[in-house]
Amino acid sequence: GQQLNQSPQSMFIQEGEDVSMNCTSSSIFNTWLWYKQDPGEGPVLLIALYKAGELTSNGRLTAQFGITRKDSFLNISASIPSDVGIYFCAGFHGGATNKLIFGTGTLLAVQP
Amino acid sequence: SQTIHQWPATLVQPVGSPLSLECTVEGTSNPNLYWYRQAAGRGLQLLFYSVGIGQISSEVPQNLSASRPQDRQFILSSKKLLLSDSGFYLCAWSHTQERAFFGQGTRLTVV
Known about the structure:
By secondary structure, chain A is mainly β. Chain A has no helices and 11 strands. Chain A has strands at about 5, 10-15, 20-25, 30-35, 45-50, 55-60, 60-65, 70-75, 85-95, 100, 105-110. Chain B is about 0% helix and about 60% strand.
C-alpha cells in the first residue's frame, strides 16, 4: 500500500537536544497530521496542519505544512526521556480526500 | 466528546479460524472509519476505509474483509486466518480532511 517517505528512520539523542524529522510525498496532500505512538498503544495526535505554509506549535513541538503541499516537518525542542516513541506523519491525499496515508515512522530514543 | 472503542485488546487464534474485530465510535455522526494493520516495528498499512454505511474501500487485496452495518460501527473479518494475518490492528475515525483519532488497538496472534 501507499506510504509517505519519512526520515530519519531512527534517532538516538541525548536529553536536551533538539530533534527534526520530515515527511515527503510525490503527490499533493490537503492535510498533514503528526502522531506519536507508545509501545502497544494506538497513535496519539500531536499536531494537525491544514494550509500550505502553516506553522503550528504544541508545547515543545513545532510542525510545518510545506509550501508545495508535498512535505511536512516536525521539530521537538529540548527533548526529554518521555519523548521516546515512534513518530508518524500522516496525510489526507489530495486526490482521494478520505484516504489517510501514513509515513514509515521515526523511532526516537532519548538518553537521560 | 468523541470516543472510539476497539475490542478485544488481545487475541490468539489458530490458523484457519474466523476473525471478527469490532470498532465503535461515540459522540459523533457520519464519521469516516479506517482499519490499519501494523507489523512489529513498522508503519501503519491502510487496509480498509469507509465514508458511510455499507460503503467500503479496500486498499490491499488479502484475506480480510470489512463491513459497516451501522453509522458508527466498523467490523474487520476473516473467514480463515493465516499466520501472516498476525499483527497490531488499529481502528480510526475522522471527518473528511480533519484530524483522525485512533482506538487502542488489537494485538492478533495467529498460531
